[in-house]
């Protein structure tokens, strides 16, 4: 039922529609330069009110994903891209993030180590891989192990901050809400793959650290790294109650990332970077964490999720 009828203020429905439209832009269903369906069609497809769709589109516009114009609808103006760190030609082509994550999940044993602000991007891509595994069960890995570092909620974040009211805590609380929601979603998705007997062994561990990252990075199967600085921007953000305010924030889901890959030469730039980032991650993971947020053991009984 749509949010007008549930009386929950549209929070869950807003998040459901927002996540799905982001997914469609990430996986290429809505390609760069293409137009999103009309608001009326989106409201009918998701069984929500036009107001919820308008809030979603306003959020996507504030994040830089779409550009909305009166009478012209919403057009996709950004997709997440990965730039090769070591150029192989004079004119390298940017690579989409989706295929790199898909490649990582093409291994029999998948390992992901991630240091990020909220885990929202990772959640998006793991859910896409879960959908692919369900559609192509013969391609499913035998093991998926995920470790995530996120900042502790006891740490004072420098962003986001309301431009007009720096003491307003709501933008920061929004970050913690996204982090908690992403952690719960990841746990559910991974455990579902095990319970459905699609992936025999899964593990998820999330640790809080006093370190606030000014970058995000992914380590994939110990052989590839994605790294990108959080760019500080001034942009409007939409709170869960629909209020819009101007904030000093960072690029999150759409942040540009550099791609590094280990090769046969241990001293090559790609191998050196992957090894250095793995050492850095392991040191923070082992020595600078306070709380284990969620644990999902590799094996267990087949309890429902």
Can you give a write-up of this model?
The protein is α+β, with helices and mostly antiparallel strands. The protein folds into two domains: 3-76, Winged helix-like DNA-binding domain superfamily/Winged helix DNA-binding domain (Arc Repressor Mutant, subunit A), CATH 1.10.10.10; 81-296, no CATH class. The chain has eight helices and 14 strands. The strands form three sheets. It has a nine-stranded mixed β-sheet, sandwiched between helices. Strands 7-12-11 form a three-stranded antiparallel β-sheet. Strands 1-2 form a two-stranded antiparallel ribbon. The model is unreliable at 1-9, 87-94 and 300-305 (pLDDT under 50). This is Winged helix-turn-helix domain-containing protein. Residues 11-79 form the HTH gntR-type domain. Keywords: DNA-binding, Transcription, Transcription regulation.
Attribute tags:
Arc Repressor Mutant, subunit A; 26% strand; 9-stranded mixed β-sheet; 305 residues; 2 domains
Concise synopsis of the structure shown:
By secondary structure, the protein is an alpha+beta fold. 36% of the residues lie in helices and 26% in strands.
- Secondary structure class reads alpha+beta
Tally of helical segments: 8
What form results from the Cα inertia axes? globular
Helical content (DSSP H or I, runs of 4+): 25-40%
How would you spell out the order of helices and strands? HHHHEEEEHEHEEHEEEEEEHE
The biggest beta sheet is recorded as: 9 strands, mixed
Domain HTH gntR-type: 11-79
InterPro entries: Tscrpt_reg_HTH_GntR (IPR000524), WH-like_DNA-bd_sf (IPR036388), WH_DNA-bd_sf (IPR036390)
Protein name: Winged helix-turn-helix domain-containing protein
Pfam families: GntR
